[in-house]
Every structure is written in C-alpha cells, then in structure tokens.
UniProtKB/TrEMBL annotation, chain A:
SUPFAM superfamilies reported for this sequence: P-loop containing nucleoside triphosphate hydrolases
YhaN AAA domain mapped to chain residues: 1-197
Organism in which the protein naturally occurs: Lentibacillus halodurans
Listed Pfam families: AAA_27
InterPro entries: P-loop_NTPase, YhaN_AAA
Coiled coil region boundaries: 321-412, 614-641, 732-800
UniProtKB keywords: Coiled coil, Membrane, Transmembrane, Transmembrane helix
Transmembrane listed as a keyword: yes
Name of this chain's protein: Uncharacterized protein YhaN
PANTHER family for the chain: DOUBLE-STRAND BREAK REPAIR RAD50 ATPASE, PUTATIVE-RELATED
Top-level taxon of the source organism: Bacteria
Regions crossing the membrane: 465-483, 489-507
TrEMBL record, chain B:
InterPro entries: Calcineurin-like_PHP (IPR004843), DNA_Repair-Maintenance_Comp (IPR050535), Metallo-depent_PP-like (IPR029052), Mre11_N (IPR041796), Pesterase_YhaO (IPR014576)
The protein's name: DNA repair exonuclease SbcCD nuclease subunit
Superkingdom in the source lineage: Bacteria
Molecular function terms, GO-annotated: exonuclease activity
PANTHER family registered for this protein in UniProt: COMPONENT OF ATP-DEPENDENT DSDNA EXONUCLEASE (PTHR30337), PHOSPHOESTERASE (PTHR30337:SF7)
Calcineurin-like phosphoesterase domain span: 5-203
Gene3D superfamilies in alphabetical order: 3.60.21.10
Lineage: Bacteria, Bacillati, Bacillota, Bacilli, Bacillales
Keywords: Exonuclease, Hydrolase, Nuclease
Pfam families referenced in this protein's UniProt entry, alphabetically: Metallophos
Length: 994, 408
C-alpha cells in the first residue's frame, strides 16, 4: 500500500491542506517542533483505521467546522483509490472510491488492511523517539526479554504483561499456599463443610427420638386405661357402702305397712272434697236464715200501716172537694178583679165629664145617643167656618196691598217727573257735540298739507344744489378756457355764472324758510271743545232718555192697580152671603144638642169622640157588675159544701178560714197517699225476699247431693266417720311413699344387678366392703406412680425434639456453606481467566518465535550491521538459557546488557525495522518514523537514511523530522511551514527534488 | 353447584439455598435464609384471608439433598395455623422431597392429606357433610418417576361436583429440566378433570385455560433465572367456570437491570446512574436482589471499570438499610459495540497469532492445577463448555487490552 496524497479538510491544526506523497517511496517531512507533524501522522492513521468519536472531537479544528479529509492510496491489485472520512458522515466511516468508479465502505477497506488495526499498526509500522526513551529506562536484566518481546510484537510491554499475570495468579491461588484468596476460601469452606456434616448427623437423630416418643405415648395410654378401670371398681364399693343405711330404712317402712288393711274404700281426695263442699254450703245456709228473718219484718210493718187508714168514702169526698178548689179560688180572684175594674171605670168617667165641663152628668150618658152622621155634619160645619174666615182674611190683605202699591207708584211718578232735563239744556249739549265733530275734521286736513310741503321742499333744495353745482362748473370751465385761451372775458363770464348760481341758491333757500314758517303758524290754531266735554254731554243725554222710559212704565202700573181694586170689592160681597147660610145651620144643631151651645164650633169634632168613648166606658161598667154578681153566687155554694164535710168529720170549723179548711182536707189526702206508697214498698220487698229464698235453696240442693254421694262412697253415715276413714288412708299412703323414695335412692346408688340382688335379700357385710375398698385404693396409687414416671420420660424426649425442631444450626450452616462455595467458584473463575491468558500468551510466544523470529532476526541483523558500521554483523535471539546476543565482527558474542546504550538504541531501531519489514510481506503498509534518530550522530543518521532509502524500494517510508541534518541527508523533503494560529494557508507543497 | 376455592402452589423448596450469591453482607444473608419461609407464611396468610376451602401443594415442598429439619417444622407450623382456620391441605411429594428420602418423620396435623405412594389416589373433600370435590394425585417414592402418570388419572363415579388433579411432572417435550412423569397436553385435556394442578417447573405458566392446566411456579426465586414475581394461584371453581388469580408471595425478588454509563463524566454521575437503575423497578417496597449489566462504549468502560466495585458497594450500602432493600449481587459490563477480534485474528502479527491460538486450544489442561486440586475439586463446579467460552473471551479481552495499553 502506497500513500499518494492526503487532502486534509480539517484535522487538528490543519485546514484545507494538501500533501503530495507521490514523489518517492521514501519521503522526509521536515518541520519545526509544534509544526503539526504528528497531526499529519494521526491524520494518516485516522484515514486508514478511523477514530472513536471522542478522538475525532479532539482533532476537530478550532477554526473550521469541517473535520475529515481524503487519502489517495495506491494498491497494486486495485490501482489508485481514494479513502474519504468526514466526521459528520456516518460517524466518520470510510468511503472508498476505486478507479473503476465504484464506492466501497469501511468493511471493504478493512479487508484490504488484512487484520491490521490502528493499535497494531502503531506498534509495528511506526515508531518514534519516545519509544527509545522507554527502552533506556529498562533494567539491564529485563532488557533481553523486552527486546525479544519487541522482536515478536513490536510492543515493548509484553514482558510487563507476563509479569502482571503471574502476580495476579499468585494472589488468587497457590497449590500449596495459605495466604492467597482461593486458599483461604478453601480453608473456610472446609470448616463449614465439617460443621455442616456434624449438624446433619444431629438432625438424623430426630427420627429415633420420634420413635421413642411414640413408644412412650403408647405405654402411657395403656397405664391410663388400667387406672381408669381400677377407679371404677373403687367407686362401686363406695356406693355400696353408702347404700347400706338406706336399705335398712326401707325394710322398716315395709314392716309398718303391714298394719293397714289391704283396701280402704274412700273417694279420691275425699277429705278435701268434703271440706270444699262445706266451704260452699255454709255461707249459703247463713244467707238463707237472714233472708227469712227479713221477710217476716216486712209483712208486720205493712199490716200496721194498713190499719191506720180511714174508709175509702171519706177520701173520695175529700177528693171531690179538692177537685173544685181550683175553680173556687179562681172565682174569688175574678170577683176581686171585677170590683176593682168597676171602681176604676167610675172614677174615669166622672173625671172626664168634669173635664169636659159641658154640663153632662153620668146619668145623661145612659140616654145620650150619637148617630154616625153627626160626626160628619159637625166636621163639615167646622171646615166651612174655617174656609169662610180664611177667605175673608185674604180679601182684607189683598185690599191693603193694593192701596199700598198705588201710593208707592204715585210717589215714584212725581219723583221722576221732577228729575227730567228741560228742553234748552238738552239742545245745548247736542250743539257742543256737533262742534267737536267739525274740529276733528279740520285737524286731519292740516296734517296732509304738511306732508305735501315736505316733499316739495326737498325737490326745491335739490334743484338749488344743481343750480349751484352747475354754475360752479360752468365757472370753472370758463375759468379754464380763459386761462387756456387767455381770454379774460371768459373769466368774467365764469364769475358771472358763479354769482348767478349763488344768487339763485340763496333766494330759493329763503323762500323755503318762509313757507315753512307759515305752515307752522297754521298748526298752532286754538282748540275750543275738548274730547272729555264731548263724552260728558253724550252721557247726560243718554240718562235723560232712560228716565223718560221709566216714567211711562210707572204710569202703566198705576192703571193696572186700579183695576185690581175693583175686583176685590166684588169678592167681599159674595162672602157675606155664605156666612149667613152657615150660621143658620149652626143654630139648627144647637137646638138638637143644647150642650153644644157652651162649646165653640171648632171643638165639636173632638167632643164627639170624647162623648163616644164615655158612652162606651159606661156600658163596660154595667157588664162587669153583672159578672160579679153571678160569681158570688157560685162561691157561696162551694163554701157550704166544705163546711158540711167539716161538720161530718167532727173537725173544729169555727174561726177557721176557707183556706185553712181546704188545707186540712188536702193534708188528709196527702197522708193517705204516703201510706199507700209505703205499703206498696213492703209488698215488693216481701216478694223479692221470697224469690231469693227460693234461689238459695236451689243452690244448696246441688252441694247437699254431692255430700251425700261422698258419704255413700266411703260407706259412712256421718261426716265425722268419713273424716276418720280419710285419715287412715293418708297414713298408709305416707308409708308407701317413703318406701318408694328409699327404693329410688338405692337404684341411683347401685347398678341394676346390685340393686336386684340387694332387694332379693343378698347379705352384705359392712366390714367386707371396707376390706375390698382398701385393696383397690392401693392398686390405684401404684398405677399413678407408673404414669408419672412415663410422663416425665415423655416430657424429656419431647423437650429434646422441640429443641431440635427449633434449632436452625443446620439450616444456617447450609446457607452459609452455599454462599461461600459460590464465592469459591467465582474466585476460581477469575483465576481461570488469568491463568488462561498467561498460558496462551506463553504458548503463542513460543509458536510465533518459531515461525517468525528467524526471519525478523535475519532482517534485524542486516540493519544492525549497517547501523553499527559493520561492528556487529550478527545478532542471536535468546535460546533456552542464553539471552539476546550480538556478535561482533571479531566473532565475540555480547549479551545485550553488555552493549552500550547507543548500541542498544540501534538494536531497538533495527528490531523495529526488522519486524516491520517481516510483517510488510503480508501487510504492505507505509512505515512512519517520527524522529527516531534524534540521538544518532550524523554518520549513523546518514547510514540510516541510506538504509531507509534502500528499504523503501519495497515499502513506502515516511520520515518526520525536525532535524536539519536529517533533512539534508534525506533526498526528498517536504517542508512544513511553521504554522502559527490561523495562519494556515491553502497551499500545496510539492516535494522538492534533490 | 356451589363454589369451591383453593390455593394452588408448588415447588416451595423450603430452606433451599440461593445460587449465585457469593458476596452478600450478613443482614442480606439472614433475609435470604428466611425468604422461602416468609413466602410460605404469606401463603398461609393469604389462604386464611381468602377463606379458601383447601390448599394444594404439588411437590418439592423441600429438598432432600439439603434436607433441613427446620423446613419441615416450619411447614408443620404453617399447616397447624391453617388447621385453626379449618383449611385442609393436600400434599403430593415430588422429585426433591420423595417419600423414601425423608429423614425427618415430622408429624403433620390432621387437616393435612398426603398422597401416600406412586399410584394415583384420591381424597374426597367434604364441606358441611356434603361431598364437594375429589382430589387426585400421587407422590414420588423415589427420586425419579419416568412413567407417564397422567395416563393413570381417572375420575371416580359419583355425585361429586369437582375433580381436581395434582401432578408433579413436566411435558415430555420440555428438555430444559429433568423430565419426570412426562405427559402430553392431550393426556390431560382428554380427561374430565376441572383443574390440573401441576408442579415441578419453576416458571409460572398457564398451559391451557379450559380446563385450566397450570404451573404456579415456585413461591420464591432462588437464582437469577427465577426472576420477577413468584407465588401461587388462588382458584375459584364455580360450575364450569374457573377464575385464577395470581398472588405474589416472594419475600425477595431476583431481577436483572441494565444501565448505560457512556455519558458519565464524573464518579458521582456513575453512582447516581447506578442508584437510578436500582430504583427503576418502581415498587420500592419489595426487596430485590439485582444483577446489573453496565453498558457503554469501550472507552467509558475502560475508564470506570477499576472503580466499579467500590461504587457498587457504595450504592449497596445506601439501599441495604431500607425496608424494600435492594442489593446488587452481581454485575457485568457490556460494550455497546462488543470487541470483535475476528478482524484482528486475521493478521499475521502476534496478536493475530494469539487470538487464533486461543480459539483453537482447550483451556482445561491449564486449569487442572486448581480444578483437580484435591482440596478444591470437591467444592468446585466443573467447567462447562459455556463457561470455557466465557473464560476464553475474558482472557482475550485482557490480553488485547494489555498488549495495546501503551502501544500507542
């Protein structure tokens, strides 16, 4: 592979920079320190192998956005192709453009590089002065190994790695060590394993313990059963002991029972039933006795009252009297009332008659007759009389009125007549009015004249001015002409015309003033009649006219009044005729009813009513008197009847009023009524009593029958016998009860078979029972002790089991063991990695040495010989026991640590060149050397350059240097300008020839 | 037909140690040790709370290989607690707790019914004197049962509403685990059972819904493969319908988390990224054992790798004291673009030669120094092919890294 051209778009210091490497296979690139030489180296490796993102970022130029470039490369089997990498494009991946116009990617490029990576490339195909510095620091003893490593790999740290791996492996494990980690872990695992086994054994004992536990449980169960059985036996004996006294009591009761007959006839609950019957019957009996006594008392009382009463006839008569009593009393009252009314009426009549004072006595009333038409006649008379009087009065008033009117009118007439104006006055007034009218007219004329004058005056004034102006103008004209024409006459004419104008104007003016003055005098003529005077005159005349009209009206009224007066006098005459006729009728009435003469005709009508009332009252009084007398007759008859009854009864009747007598009779009747009621009451009581007695007896009958029945059953006659028999029966029952009670007790204490045996007469001795009991108790005690022992044993085993169950030792140990084992395995894995690495490295080294070392040494020897100027023609690689050696020209072999520093440097360089050349047989990559020869003297440098030129026939070599002498020695040099800051130009450098 | 309800659990593996925990502090160790028991206690609590009729435990209640008395005693105590609440327990033993291997004859209370041998038997569950369910099953007498036991299950005739089968075994096709009592799905579904309660596979799986054929998984994860929630099923059968609710029981959760550390510039950033990842799981109340994978580019990984042990220890220390503690028990680093040595291996240079050599050669002989060491070999797991590959890869990384270090 041959690099032809590098175009840097941007990389480190370089921006848009092109370097052409195509001139020669060996090319020296010269530049000062910091000129950017190493950037170019890095650029080339970047183009070939790419860079990780962080590195790319590091080489991104500060002054440009671009990062990347192209590398034109020649490959014999492909031709010239271009590798392009740009940071932003595909993460800096390569694009390769081949001559046939195809584009390839990174992978294609990698194939071309045949397994070369940047790191390997750096270690094989490029070296620098720094590598030498490191070599110099090596200890002499290690130097051989390091150099061998370099010989094999180009990398000087192979030896370090081997050493480091040994350390790591040693730290982890030594087959018979104690300290290393794995050894320690193994030791602790052994311990854990031992204790684990121990705990496992312990837990295995669990099974046996468990079996022992089961056996103990069984034993215990058997013992327990036996104990229960013995307890049962002891219990039965105790019961028998308790039963003995009860049995004896039972036998005693049995003997007692023999004293009673087998059968005692007696009703069920006989005594109770008897007592109950008596309880019911006795109260009934006593109640019946009381009832019988009451009945007798009632009958006695009733008979006593009955004997005290009169015969029935007496009472009947008394009742008849009492029946009429009411009528009698009412008659008496009516008589009193009538008498009273009569008296009152008499008084009223007399009083009213007196009031009338018409000379009529009460006796007269009896004969007085007043037919219905009288009233009407009297009324008519009265009305006529009134009308007559009224009409007369009216006429009288009318006459007076008419007279008064006439007087008044006459007075008015004379008054008006006197106030009227006379003829002369009136005329004078009319004259003054007409005068005023004339005057008015003249005034109007004067005004019109003045107006006319004014107009004329203006006209006149105007013409005056014209006149004046005209004359003045003419004068001027003439004046001008005279000046122009220089003719004086014209001037004179001008003066003349001026004078004429002025004179005309003055005369006219005076004229006007005269006329005006004249007109003013006209206006100031004297005014004879004023407007007020005129109005006054008109009003006076109007008033006079009115008065005249009034006077004529009054005259008319006087004439009408006279006519009325005559009519009134005629009416008065008619009235007199009617009055005479009325008086005739009055006289006729006086004749029939003389008492009327004393009464004014006006009251006749009222008198009629009073009289009529009076007559009625009188007739009422007479009626009442009749009634009163008839009543008196009735009462006397009744009194007679009462007196007769008194007499018959032999009662004291004298000095007793009718009321008292009647009261006595009434009392008699009342007494009878009371007694009769009493008798009736006793009768009722007697009847009730009878009924109750019957009921009582009915009730008692039931009980008495029941009682008899009871006695019959008990086969006894009396209650006493019955009771005795009852007691006998109850005693017998008591014995029987006691017996059954005892028997029940026995059956509870004893089992069935024991009970039966006892009752059937088994003989049991108390002492024998006691003996049996003691035997059983001893057995029980023995069993109890056995059980306790077993229980204790069981508790012990159980505790052991519990402890085992709660123990976590085995579990804990197991877990811990597992964890530690894991740890061991992990450490072992770690160890395995180091161990593998170490072994692999060693083996490969061996293999590689066999394969390549001969070739490398051969090439290295050549370089070394040239560099040392033939002092050391051969070198020998380390073999079995011998180190790296160099053979001098005289055949003496020196081991590397015996060589001088400079010679070692040369050996190093030779080794690097050697391996590079060896490798380049497969990987034909350019060899890049960065000032590796700084410490060489010029001679050696020249030799080196010469060697490189020769080498470059097969392999492109690019040498970077800042050494002048190197530059000079090298044939083809590209000088890099010293780049400062941004001063990087886009300049192409061509390799200088020669 | 009235409902019955029960809890279906399997593979309790009581007191069985966790795998893959090499460096754990004492407090976490104690919690790990108790975790299987805590899960069992929670199972009992749930059974009581849900008032189930009975509990089915389908094998592998404990491990004979690491048999501890504590496991069985704790189990007995749990059963006694269930007895107080009148809950029956039906137990069949599996390949880890097979009957003949039992060293500890712990007596269980009388609410526990154990299938006595390898022939399929049944128990009748009665409720209020009424026959409610027939429960079928068998127990492993020896470590292995290779016959198809599913074929032996037949429902009994009678007026019993529900037929429930307990089977500890695996599908014949499942080769990931030891195959015991192998069966085909059709073996189960063609029989007239209402529920197939399976055990043996630790990963929860509902194989069929009608009728339900269910692996409840184990109740507490014990290694990184048994990650996430672990527990049992609460099953209610009513008529033809079955409702199954998963109840998590685990006391500690195994989980795997990844964190990208490419962007970490400072040590504290690294710490906060890791802390963040630890709490990513959300439910901070549940204790977790975490396996952490740190990803990043080569550069950042190389930068931080030496500090990782320390930082993770720091993070662990902050999370250990919490109620829902978290603990990173293992971590690994993973390059975003993994090292690819294929290219390098083509080279004629030394590294190419080295890589080719590593690929070609078996490493076993190099390791016999330790792995055949008489003291060590009884505790060391043999190196599997997979493990060998991992070791080789690590060795390559190590060497390439070291050889290039300073080569620039």
């Amino acid at each position: 592979m041959h690099i032809r051209q590098a175009i840097i778009y941007g990389f480190g210091k370089w921006v848009d920079y092109t370097i052409d490497f195509s001139a020669e296979n060996f090319l020296c690139i010269y530049g000062d320190n910091e000129a950017g030489k190493s950037s170019i180296q890095h650029f080339i490796t970047f183009m070939l192998f790419g860079l990780p993102p962080k590195k790319r970022a590091y080489y991104r130029p500060k002054t440009s956005g671009k990062m990347g470039g192209r590398l034109t490369v020649f490959e014999p089997d492909i031709g010239e192709f271009v590798i392009e990498r740009i940071d932003e494009v595909e993460n800096g991946a390569a694009s390769c453009y081949t001559p046939d116009g195809k584009t390839y990617h990174e992978t294609w490029l990698q194939e071309r590089l045949k397994g070369m990576t940047q790191a390997v490339y750096q270690s094989i195909f490029s070296f620098s002065a720094l590598d030498l510095v490191d070599i110099r620091k090596m200890k002499e003893a290690e130097l051989g190994e390091v150099l061998l490593g370099i010989g094999l790999t180009g990398s000087k740290n192979m030896y370090d790695i081997e050493k480091w791996l040994d350390t790591k492996i040693g730290e982890l494990f030594k087959p018979s060590g104690k300290k290393p980690e794995l050894n320690q872990q193994l030791a602790s695992l052994d311990d854990l394993f031992t204790s684990l086994q121990h705990y496992r054994k312990q837990e295995a004992a669990y099974k046996d313990k468990k079996a022992a536990m089961f056996a103990l449980t069984d034993d215990n169960r058997q013992l327990q059963a036996e104990l229960e059985h013995m307890n049962g036996i002891a219990f039965r004996i105790e019961k028998k002991q308790q039963a003995l006294p009860v049995f004896k009591a039972y036998q005693h009761e049995l003997e007692q029972l023999d004293n009673y007959p087998e059968h005692i006839p007696f009703p069920e609950n006989g005594i109770d039933r008897l007592e109950k019957l008596n309880e019911q019957l006795l109260p009934l009996k006593s109640e019946l006795a009381v009832l019988q006594h009451n009945g007798n008392t009632y009958a006695e009382k009733r008979d006593a009252i009955r004997s005290e009463l009169y015969d029935a006839a007496v009472y009947e008569r008394a009742e008849a009297i009492m029946e009429q009593k009411q009528a009698y009393m009412e008659a008496q009252k009516e008589i009193d009332r009538l008498r009273d009314s009569i008296r009152k009426l008499e008084l009223q009549i007399n009083t009213e008659l007196e009031q009338l004072n018409s000379g009529i006595s009460s006796e007269d009333l009896e004969t007085l007759h007043l037919p219905f038409h009288v009233e009407k006649t009297w009324n008519q008379l009265k009305i006529d009389m009134e009308q007559l009087t009224l009409t007369r009065n009216q006429l009288q008033e009318e006459l007076q009125q008419l007279t008064k009117n006439r007087d008044y009118l006459k007075a008015e007439q004379s008054k008006l007549s006197s106030s009227l104006l006379n003829e002369s006055q009136e005329n004078m007034l009319e004259e003054s009015i007409s005068h005023y009218e004339q005057q008015k007219y003249m005034e109007q004329e004067a005004v019109e004249q003045t107006v006319k004058w004014q107009r004329m005056k203006q006209k006149k004034e105007k013409s005056n001015i014209l006149w004046l102006g005209g004359s003045f103008a003419a004068a001027t004209l003439l004046g001008l002409f005279s000046v122009v024409l220089n003719q004086n006459f014209l001037l004179a004419l001008a003066v003349v015309s001026l004078v004429i104008g002025a004179g005309q104007w003055l005369s006219s003016k005076r004229n006007l003033q005269d006329i005006e003055k004249m007109l003013q005098t006209n206006e100031t003529a004297p005014n004879q009649v004023s407007i007020n005077d005129k109005l006054e005159a008109e009003r006076t005349i109007e008033a006079n006219h009115n008065k005249k009209r009034e006077l004529s009206s009054i005259n008319e009224q006087i004439r009408l009044n006279d006519t009325e007066f005559i009519k009134c006098e005629e009416k008065q005459h008619g009235l007199q005729v009617r009055e005479n006729r009325l008086n005739e009728q009055i006289r006729c009435q006086h004749k029939r009813y003389p008492f009327l003469m004393q009464i004014d005709i006006m009251y006749w009508s009222e008198l009629f009513h009073s009289l009529k009332q009076m007559v009625k009252l009188y007739r009422d009084k007479a009626e009442m008197k009749n009634q009163c007398e008839s009543l008196l007759e009735n009462t006397d008859q009744y009194a007679e009847m009462a007196n007769k009854f008194f007499h018959e009864m032999n009662w004291e009747s004298s000095n007793r009023s009718m009321e008292d007598k009647l009261l006595a009779i009434e009392k008699l009747l009342e007494n009878r009524r009371d007694r009769t009621a009493l008798i009736q009451q006793y009768e009722n009581w007697c009847e009730d009593n009878e009924h109750q007695q019957h009921n009582m007896k009915q009730k008692m009958l039931v009980y008495e029958q029941e009682l008899a029945h009871l006695l019959a059953i008990a086969e006894t006659e009396t209650e006493e016998d019955f009771l005795q028999k009852g007691k006998q029966l109850s005693d017998k029952q008591k014995h029987m009860n006691k017996m059954s009670e005892l028997s029940e007790q026995l059956s509870q204490m004893l089992r069935n078979e024991e009970y039966d045996a006892l009752l059937s007469g088994e003989n049991i001795e108390e002492s024998q029972l006691k003996h049996e009991y003691e035997q059983a108790a001893a057995k029980i005690k023995e069993l109890g002790q056995d059980i306790d022992t077993k229980r204790q044993q069981k508790a012990d085993v159980s505790a052991e089991l519990g402890m085992m169950e709660s123990s976590e030792s085995y579990s804990e140990a197991l877990h811990r063991f597992t964890v530690e084992r894991e740890k061991l395995n992990e450490l072992a894995g770690e160890w395995a990695v180091y161990k593998t690495a170490k072994e692999m490295l060693a083996e490969t080294k061996r293999n590689y040495r066999d394969k390549y070392l001969g070739k490398v040494i051969e090439k290295t020897s050549r370089y070394f010989q040239v560099l040392t100027g033939g002092v050391y023609p051969f070198i020998y690689p380390p073999s079995s026991d011998k180190p790296f050696r160099a053979e001098a020209y005289d055949g003496i072999r020196y081991s590397v640590d015996e060589l001088s520093q400079g010679t070692v440097d040369q050996l190093y360089v030779s080794l690097r060149m050697g391996i590079s050349e060896a490798m380049s047989e497969k990987h034909r990559l350019p060899f890049i050397i960065d000032d590796a020869f700084v410490h060489f003297d010029p001679t050696r440098t020249k030799r080196m350059i010469k060697l490189l030129s020769k080498l470059s026939a097969n392999q492109q070599i690019i040498l970077f240097t800042c050494k002048e002498d190197v530059r000079e020695s090298a044939g083809n040099v590209i000088s890099i300008p010293h780049v400062t800051g941004s001063n990087i130009s886009t300049s192409n450098f061509k390799a200088k020839q020669g | 037909m009235s409902d019955i309800s029960f809890i279906h659990a399997a593979d309790l593996h009581l007191d069985s140690p966790f795998k893959g925990l090499s460096h754990i502090p004492e407090s976490i160790f104690q919690k790990v040790k108790e975790s299987t028991f805590e899960a069992l206690d929670l199972l009992v609590e749930q059974a009581i709370e849900k008032q189930v009729d009975f509990v089915l435990l389908v094998g592998d209640l404990f491990d004979h290989e690491k048999q501890s008395l504590k496991a069985q005693v704790h189990l007995r105590n749990a059963f006694e607690k269930l007895k107080h609440h009148y809950i029956y327990v039906y137990v069949s033993y599996g390949n880890h707790d097979f009957i003949r291997g039992n060293l500890h004859p712990v007596t269980y209370p009388d609410n526990v019914f154990i299938f006595p041998d390898e022939s399929v038997n049944h128990f009748i569950y009665q409720k209020n004197g009424e026959m409610k369910a027939a429960i079928y099953g068998f127990s492993f007498e020896n470590r292995a049962v290779t016959a198809n036991k599913a074929a032996e299950y037949e429902t009994i005739v009678g007026d019993i509403p529900y037929h429930i089968a307990m089977l500890h075994g695996s599908l014949h096709s499942n080769t990931e685990h030891d195959v015991y009592a192998p069966f085909h799905i059709s073996d189960l579904t063609e029989k007239d059972f209402d529920y197939w309660a399976l055990g043996h596979i630790h990963q929860r799986e509902m194989i069929r819904h009608d009728p339900p054929v269910v692996y409840p998984g184990n109740i507490q994860g014990r290694n990184k493969k048994e990650a996430g929630e672990k527990g049992c099923y609460h099953v209610v059968l009513s008529g033809d319908a079955a409702s199954m609710t998963f109840l998590p029981l685990q006391s500690i959760k195994f989980n795997q988390r990844s964190a990208d550390i490419s962007d970490c510039q400072e040590l504290h950033q690294l710490e906060s990224v890791i802390s963040q990842t630890v709490t990513d799981g959300g439910n901070s109340m549940s204790p977790e054992l975490l396996r952490l994978t740190l990803t990043g580019d080569q550069e950042s990984l190389e930068k931080w790798e030496p500090s990782l042990d320390e930082v993770i220890q720091l993070v662990n220390e902050t999370f250990i004291p919490r109620t829902g503690w978290k603990y990173i028990y293992q971590y690994s680093v993973e390059q975003t673009s993994p090292d690819n040595y294929d290219e390098l291996a083509q080279g004629e240079h030394f590294i190419g030669e080295l890589l080719r050599h590593i690929d070609d050669v078996s490493i076993q002989p190099y390791l016999s120094e330790l792995y055949q060491h008489k003291q060590a070999r009884k505790f060391l797991d043999p190196i599997s092919g997979e493990r060998e590959m991992r070791i080789k890869q690590k060795a390559k990384q190590l060497l390439v890294h070291q050889l290039f270090n300073g080569g620039e």
